[in-house]
Amino acid sequence: MAIFLHHGDLPATVRFTGSVAVDTETMGLNLQRDRLCLVQLSAGDGDAHLVKIAPGVDAPNLKALFADASVVKIFHYARFDVGMIKRNLGVDCAPVFCTKIASKLCRTNTDRHGLKDLCRDLLGVELSKEQQTSDWGAPAPSAAQQQYAANDVLYLHELKAKLEALLAREGRTELALATIAFLNTRAALDLAGWADEDIFTH
Fold first, then answer.
1. Is residue 183 part of a domain?
2. Backbone phi, then psi, for 181, in 5-degree steps?
3. Helix residue ranges per DSSP H, 22-98
4. Which domain holds residue 162?
């Protein structure tokens, strides 16, 4: 496994085709208040590219990747990451796949749908979440932070394949795809102030 750290943007020489696993690290979990600090990417080949984002950075190569209709962006809890990317980089991520939504729709035998749970239950991999609440706003992530950030994308391709098989087995593939397709609208609602209100209630 190799971890590549980039500052400001994804180098133009790094290309992804078919699909790319994506995650973000931020200063907190408030879409209105907290800023994007790091974007992690993996082609599912065991390597991870980490892009350090400074305030005001435009990152045109990242934006082009997120908007590329030929590349599926695989997230875990895409609602937050898609919203954070939209607010900080001004681009919608499409198409996307969310392993958390997929898990909730096909793994109804459990209420544990975190990335750590999925990696353990479906892949037999134990993830450490020790660096989750560390300071991601520093000029450069520490070695421990880099390893943590890489782990958040290294297994998403495998999880997607496992979850797609479970969705098909349970007859919920179309429901999952339709729900996931709504994520950019869900993120827009979050950013517009409807994060907690259920607009579908009477």
1. yes
2. -65, -20
3. 60-67, 78-89
4. 3-192
Q: Is residue 170 part of a domain?
A: yes
Cα–Cα distances (Å) from 170 to 38, 111, 154, 162, in that order, read: 36, 17, 26, 13
Distance, CA of 76 to chain centre: 5
pLDDT, tens digit, 9 for 90 and up, residues 38-70: 999 999 999 999 999 998 889 999 999 999 999
CATH number at residue 12: 3.30.420.10
- Residue 198 within any structural domain of the chain: no
What pTM was computed for the model? Answer: 0.96
Per residue in 61-96, pLDDT tens? Answer: 999 999 999 999 999 999 999 999 999 999 999 999
Q: Is residue 181 part of a domain?
A: yes
Query: Which is it for strands 3-7 and 48-52: parallel, antiparallel or unpaired?
Result: parallel
Residue ranges in 38-182 assigned as alpha helix (H): 60-67, 78-89, 99-106, 115-118, 143-154, 156-170, 173-181
- Number of domains within the chain: 1
Angle between helices 173-181 and 99-106 (to 10 degrees): 140
